[in-house]
Amino acid sequence: MTTLSDLRKDYACGSLDETSVDADPIRQFETWFKQALDARLPEPNTMTLATVDARGYPSARILLIKGVDERGVLRQHYETDSLDASTLLAAIFGFLPADDERLRTSVLAIAEELTEDGFVLRYRTDETDDGLSGKEGTFLICSFWLVSALAVIGEHQRARDLMERLLREASPLGLYAEEFDADTGRHLGNFPQAFSHLALIEAAARIILVERLDEYTH
Fold first, then answer.
1. Dihedral (C-alpha) 28, 84, 170, 182: value to the nearest 10 degrees?
2. Which H, E and C letters describe 83-112, residue by residue?
């Protein structure tokens, strides 16, 4: 039986950069559809190749048409323009190239609009119906994600500055909780929180990599 992966091997534009999106989504889709037609594959494979990846999931193409707002910022979901710290993972996991303007705009929007005293909220609770009540603290995992994302987009000094602030806020044991109250300096929620420390390691590795590359190239 021929699989979707098998069909994509015959795709005439197999090396196409799927992160390239035209300002006019209808025109862009027509372009992708024509490229799929050029592979000379019968329907419904033409439509499939234009809209999903080899695993059958929505491709980066569709996500970038529906998941980016008018400013070029990644949305929390398709039905809102609200920010969500989880979109920082687009930088960490390489969903978009480091020099993609949408990635840079998204990271900086979170740094400037989704923070309290420089520490990152996971989202604005007044914009997101998560079924919970009350005010949240900033999330340490999200703040460490921002360090990594800033390093990815080339904002190395900002990444170092935030990392140094975060390191100063560790508990007397050098550990981190789930959340951090930027007003009081208190750790909140689960303590210690493993996810916060995993993100710390990732952020530290990103900064060390930048410093080693700087040493190598100078």
1. 130
2. CEHHHHHHHHCCCCCCCCHHHHHHHHHHHH
Per-residue tokens: 201: 């390691």
pTM for the predicted model, two decimal places: 0.73
Classify 120 as helix, strand or coil: strand
Residue type, 108: L
User: CB neighbours (10 Å) of residue 21?
Assistant: 19
Quote the CA–CA distance of 104 and 109 in Å, as a whole number: 8
Considering the four listed CATH numbers 3.90.1300.10, 1.20.1250.20, 1.50.10.10, 1.10.8.80, the one that applies to the domain covering 70-217 is 1.50.10.10
How remote is the C-alpha of 162 from its chain's centroid?
18
Compute the Cα dihedral for 158, 161, 163, 165 and give only its sign: negative
pLDDT above 80 for 36: no
